[in-house]
Amino acid sequence: MRAVLAAPPPTLLVIAKSPVPGRVKTRLTPACTPEQAAALAEAALSDTLHTLATVPAGRRLLVLDGEPGRWLPPGWQVLPQSGGGLDARLVAAFGHAARLAPDAPALLVGMDTPQLSAATLAEPLSPTGRAGTDAWYGPASDGGFWALGLARPTEDLARRLLLGVPMSTPDTGSTLLDRLGTAGLTVHRLPEATDVDTVEDALLVASQAPRSRFAARLRSFRAAPEVAG
Question: Maximum distance among all alpha carbons in the chain?
Fold first, then answer.
């Protein structure tokens, strides 16, 4: 009898900036100080990494602009971000995943959705859940996307899908979806989520995940009632 090969576990990627004051979450200021904005970014990143640590995976890669800190939990391999715009850095991240685990699907998320639950990804990425799927797409409420996954990632495919897509615009997600369709990929659409960009986003996300590190950090800012709510 021919042996049945087990489906390879997915590679999970997080692309992030080190939470340094003045470099992250600048749209939260002036309601937040740069230090508070960085503290919220650190909490969001920590929530994301700890949540994804509970999703079954073969590899967990943090593609980082900056240096890791005490917020980094065990089990994550840190890789430096490439140069160029965000589109080029996303392409390079998928290239890393494809080289390290060429037969495994790869799914990438950012650091701006601390409300993410493990169940949102665990079932779609399971061997049965991903049958017949070529790509995963998580739409963001601002018109962007919070997740992108490829069942058979290559740097060339990522380049065709992502390079030249205008980032951080209301049309970012629709442009990516058009490219996924043009490539003939069967897309599993994940639930819509809110990226934390503004104070209003932060308050909404904290209400959706009240037990998160992010929500706790936001509540701690008693000196800024317009932030703490």
Answer: 69
